[in-house]
Design a protein that fits this description.
The chain is of the alpha+beta class. The protein has a domain of about 110 residues. It has two helices and eight strands; from the N terminus they run ααββββββββ. The strands form two sheets. Strands 1-2-3-4-5 form a five-stranded antiparallel β-sheet, covered by helices on one side. Strands 6-7-8 form a three-stranded antiparallel β-sheet, with helices on one face. β6 and β7 form a beta hairpin. It is rod-shaped.
């Protein structure tokens, strides 16, 4: 058990134990600073990867919705689907019963247009490549859509590639 005289001796200016507490404090502050720096760097690294994952899931979701809409338009086509390459990009015309649905790739935007209704909307933005082509399979009029989206973040290592297939209801 420590006595009162023991504590008094430790607080004397000439005592060797008086300087150890200051050195220990400086070491603890240095270790704490290093750990906080590593923790902060790790936090921001994981934050960036989290944002990349969120952007990738948003892009995948929008591509899947666009693919399902495209498949519905191919199934609803009542005539021959025509692919046209122009100076402005690629245009795919899908005639339906009372209207024509047009998919137009210009730049990095894929638009779905219905000229008779004067409507146009962006189906997908940030499209790197898009190719809609017929794929005849015996007596079936099948179509394939190969799609690649532009990566929003450099942390993404895998490209966002999609393939959609549909069968037109043509006689």
């Amino acid at each position: 058990m420590k006595t009162r005289s023991h504590f008094l001796n430790a607080s004397r200016p000439g005592c060797p134990q008086a300087g150890i507490l200051l050195i220990e404090c400086l070491v603890y502050i240095a270790v704490f600073s290093i750990l906080m720096g590593i923790g902060t760097a790790s936090f921001y690294l994981f934050w960036d990867y989290s944002k990349s994952l969120r952007y990738a899931t948003e892009d995948v979701g929008s591509a899947l919705r666009a693919g399902e809409g495209w498949r519905a338009d191919v199934r609803a086509a009542s005539g021959k689907i025509v692919v046209e390459k122009t100076n402005n990009g690629v245009t795919v015309r899908m005639p339906e019963r009372k209207r024509v649905v047009v998919y137009r790739l210009a730049g990095d935007e894929l638009r779905r247009e219905i000229p008779a209704e004067h409507s146009s909307r962006v189906v997908l933005a940030k499209v790197k490549t898009s190719e809609m082509q017929p794929e005849p399979r015996g007596g079936v009029a099948a179509w394939r859509w190969e799609l690649e989206l532009t990566q929003r973040r450099p942390q993404m290592r895998q490209p966002l590639l999609f393939t959609f297939e549909a069968v037109a209801n043509q006689p």
